[in-house]
Amino acid sequence: MNAVNLLILEKMRKSDTGRIPVHAHPFWQLELALGGPIGVWLDSGQDVLQEGDMLLIPPGTDHAFLYEKLDCAWITIKFECEPRAVPEPKVHRLPRSRLNEKWMSLMETIVSEPVLTRAEKMFVEGLLQALCRHLAEREAVQETGSEHPLVRSVTDRVREQGGRPVSIGQLAEEMGYTRGYLSAQFRTASGESLKSFIDRTRLDKAKELLLYSESVIAEVAESLGFKDLFSFSRFFKKGAGVSPRAFRQRHRLREQG
Question: Do 151 and 182 touch, CB atoms closer than 8 A?
C-alpha cells in the first residue's frame, strides 16, 4: 500500500437540520467545512466548524456532527495512512487560512467529477501526505518548544500573503491584539521585530521570483503589491544591497558560467 490510500472523497450538503450520531472508524477522516456552522462532538469536548475550517480525525476517535443551520456543506475525505506518514494520532483543527482555501478550491474541483481517474486519486493522496507531513513537523516544533505559538501564527499569516504587503495593524486586528502588544510579544518570543520579519519574507519572495520566474521586473513588483517599479527597487536594494536587475543578472551569469 502507498503511504496514503484514499478511500472516499465526497461533497455533502444538508438541506435540513439534524445530526450524525456518535461513531468511530478504523481510518482517518478529514472534514472541510464549505458552509457552517457545523457542530462537532469529540472525546475532548465540543467544537464548531465555521466556513473555511478543516478538521482531521484519527482512527478510533468517537465523534458526532450536529447541523443546526440550513444548507450546511462540507467535503469529507476518508483515507488510510501508514504510521510513518502521519502526525500524532489526535484530532487536528485547522482554522480558516489561505492554505485551507487553496485546499478546498482544489478538492471542490476534483470532487465535481463522479469518478476519480487514477491520476486524480494519486494527486489527492499526495496532497493528504503533504498535509500529514506538515502537521507532524508542526508538532515536532511544538514539542521542542523552538517556536512560540504566537510566532507560528504570525509567521503563517505573513507567509500566506505570498510576498504581498501586510501591515502589523492588519495582523493585530485579525488576531485580536493591539498593534503594540503583538509587536512586543513577537520580538520577545522570536528576537526579531515583526516589521523586520515581514520585510524579510517579502524580500525572500522577491528573490525567488527574480531567480526562477520569467516575469519582467515590473511584473514581479506588481505581483508583490508595490505601487511602482521605483518603490520595489528601493525596497529590494535596501534589503539585498543591489538592485533587482543587478541581482538577476549576477545569478544568471553564475548559471551560465
Answer: no
Q: Which pLDDT belongs to residue 5?
A: 93
Cβ 66 vs Cβ 19: under 8 Å = yes
Q: How many CB atoms lie within 10 A of CB 2?
A: 14
Closest to 225 in 3D by CA, of 158, 154, 162:
162
Q: Which residues partner with 63 through β-bridges?
A: 23, 42
What phi-psi label fits residue 6: left (phi over 0), alpha (psi between -120 and 50 degrees) or beta?
A: beta
How many residues in the chain? 257
Q: Which three cell numbers stand for residue 161?
A: 500573503
Nearest Cα to Cα of residue 126 among 2, 250, 251, 252: 2
Q: Which residue(s) pair with 33 in the sheet?
A: 74
Query: Lowest-confidence range among 61-75, 172-186, 221-235?
Result: 61-75
